[in-house]
Amino acid sequence: MTTGSLGTVDFERWRRKYELIKQAARAHSRTMEEWAAIDETRATRCAEVRALVDRFQADGSLADFRTGVDAWSRTEGAFHAFRGYGLMWLNQLAKHDGDHAPAIAEALRAGVQTPESVPEAIDKLERVESAMAPIRASGQPAAGRKAFVLSLFWSTDPSDDTWPCLWPSAADGLRRLGWTRSWDNDEIYPIFREVSLALEPADPHFVERCLWFLEKRQGFVGLAPGLRETCVEASDLLVAHSRNGAYLDEDQESRAKDLASQLTGEMKLTVSAMETGMRDATGLELTTALPQLKTSFDASKPYRADTYGNWSTPGGMDAPSLRLWATRSGVAFGVHAGFMTQETATNLAREIENHLAPQQSFFHLQRHDSGDRLARRSSTYESGEIFVGWWWDDDAALGDPTLGTDLVEKAAQLGPVIELCSAAQRRATSTEGTSAGIVTSTVDTGWLAGRAQTFRKQRPYPTDKDAIHQERRSEFAQAMTAEALGDLDFALFRKMYNGNGYGAPGPQARLNRSFNEIAAAELDKFCEELREFLWGDEPVEQRLTRALDREILNVKGLGESVLMKMLAVVHPDRFLPIFPLNGDMGKEAVLERLELAIPPAGHAAARQIQANDRIRELLEPLFPGDAWAQGQFAYWLMREAESPAVEEDLVAGLADRLLVPGVFLDEVRDLLEERKQIIFYGPPGTGKTYIARELAAALQPDPLRRRTVQFHPSTSYEDFFEGFRPRLDEAGAMTYELRKGPLALLVDKAESDPTTPHVLLIDEINRANLPRVLGELLFLLEYRKEFVYTTYRPEEPFQLPDNLLIIGTMNTADRSIAMVDSALRRRFHFIPFMPHDGPLSGVLHKYLDKHDGPTWVAGLVNAVNERLRVELKGPHLQIGHSHFMRTDLDAAVLQRIWTYGVYPMIEDQLYGREGLLETFTWSSVLKDYGPGSAAAAETSAEAEALAIDDQAH
């Protein structure tokens, strides 16, 4: 729609809708009081800003003008809100002091003067755009704000009251109503002015106020009185299209699209305004949903001639929903049962018939080309989808502000019907080996239905984190609507392709660099081409082919995965959040796992779309309308196929090999399963790391599902979890990318395979500054069910899954356990590894006996350790047995181990006590505790007792 094209038919329909909005606003006392207060200061504020404009015309100083407007916007009254959305834009231009500053100042100087005609207004907007384009970076200053800022100054001119201000709420209101399809506020302004003058010739500013009221205060004021007339006109165009196979010309197609936009806009306002009321009435968690503009995603199909809005219960397309439906014959409200087999629907309808309220009936859903989607029936169901509720003939439900209250009251009566529908769906999905009661595909999904049930239970699905991914998709999609791409939120766009929200397309360092270097004109071109790629009329395969061949979106680094993520975000009803075609987790690998044919060789675009559609066709019946669930299920199946089958208890077989009691290992496993993280602590050489590695391998034989890291004083959060790391790009230049560390990588694996344990071994955990390394992850060690938002991904939730087990080792010779942060101690079970006590006390003797070694060495080590515990007042600096667990122990080897391995440690602890140190030399300890000594005999007796104790367990 362009300036001057406001048709008589449209205007008359819009005028009647506007009257409903105005009546509701005038009846809202708080709003009227606020507007009256604004009017008291409006003349003063206008005079003040006109003085600033006049001074700007005289001296041309943009800096002084900006300073004056800044102070003016901080005064209470009519223009107080300008200081946010508008002043930011003005500041961004005024602070620029480069070569383009004079041109910017001159364009703004002319731009704030009130135009005398619409062409002159358009010229002013274009001049400002030309001046600001060379300095724009990453979408700033935002092009879409200039119409608001300039029109605000125009609206303060007392000599010409025909230029209302295009506040953001006005532009949004026009788009939400469907009165304009433009995404460009420069194009919207002439339409807005024309509509405002037509609706309120004496006070066009009041129209903006009413649009603000509709947007911010009271979205439902009654269905548009002209809604059925719009359906009738749209229906005539649809029937003609069906008869001819196409629209007669571009004008007819554009008109059909205008009408479909108006129908959808009207229903969008209604369902969003009444969402809270519907939730309160039913006690259910409801989400809103609307149909697409066309009757199908096939570009050759016509635009809709009806509209409906859903308040849907959880569960996707197969879940029941409350639905308000408008057609050329009238309006219906009731319960849509969701999609199910005919058998399930027939059985359900028999139950519903016994719960019909007065004046309720079943409706038969007709084909779009019939011109009318609903045909009213009696209390008897026939076939097809179940939609049951109340009916208003012709215009009976339109233009009535009390309809909202009536619908909420009726929703409260529909609770029994919703529960019957939900129960029917649960029964249909409860039988393993069936297609979950849903038939939307001709593909046999029988073998997968049982796996889908297991996925829902074991993963499980859905979780709060899944809901957050869905919210992120919705947020990204809002930024990439056709309208929003006229003023792209580039920061949010970057988060979309860089982050993990709704799936990760991988590191995008080259793409980030491209966008950092892109010129303003190229960025504008990119946004235009992106709109064509995402929303163009060509078949999507052709659009994707052009993008991959760089005929559009020719930005270096913009590859296949990012393109597919964008399609998945804005068209979740078609595209899955599985982005690559090749690779271990690409679409072709998924097809192979699902036992589907891989598309034949050809262009990547065709193969991407064919692979997507084949996967979607198979999984849609299992998770109707939920692309995220389908993608997560596919990945879960892939991980499941990789998981090795472990039928024996490998932990039970460790005891003999590790020479420790079996009951000790059982207890360690129990402690690990209980708290999910444990720490082995003790002197060096006591086998902490060795046993930890053996235990990790027994708990998870697959080396891809366990990982070992060693902390040191320089270990950081970025090393362990995630941080920016340098890399060379394709051109050999240094760049940085956000790279996951070992913890984040293992978490990804654990989340995708939730029934399999994944083990992280952190060796020397106490050598690092743990609060610095762990950061917000310290919270998750105690609260595994909770989410946090991490340092480098503040928009994405992170959780430690229950199947991630953490084993740490701590050398107490370096740092006493008493020095460990109490918060960390509370989050781990600490298991001592002491040579003189507990399960490790006889390990050395057992080893030497098993390997026919000199068992007297065990007695020597025990005796020396007893002396060290006395001299050093504690057990944490004893000699570990692993020094002597060798099969080649002879006199020379023993002396070498002691002299160069053990004695230096003792010397370090007893530094300066020369007389005492002399008793710990090899010759001294050999004489005191070697063969034939009393210590050796005592050790032999203790070993026998330990053997008896092990057998008892």
TrEMBL record:
<feature type="domain" description="AAA+ ATPase">
    <location>
        <begin position="674"/>
        <end position="835"/>
    </location>
</feature>
<dbReference type="GO" id="GO:0016887">
    <property type="term" value="F:ATP hydrolysis activity"/>
</dbReference>
<dbReference type="GO" id="GO:0005524">
    <property type="term" value="F:ATP binding"/>
</dbReference>
<dbReference type="InterPro" id="IPR052934">
    <property type="entry name" value="Methyl-DNA_Rec/Restrict_Enz"/>
</dbReference>
<dbReference type="Pfam" id="PF07728">
    <property type="entry name" value="AAA_5"/>
</dbReference>
<dbReference type="InterPro" id="IPR027417">
    <property type="entry name" value="P-loop_NTPase"/>
</dbReference>
<dbReference type="InterPro" id="IPR011704">
    <property type="entry name" value="ATPase_dyneun-rel_AAA"/>
</dbReference>
<protein>
    <submittedName>
        <fullName>AAA family ATPase</fullName>
    </submittedName>
</protein>
<dbReference type="InterPro" id="IPR003593">
    <property type="entry name" value="AAA+_ATPase"/>
</dbReference>
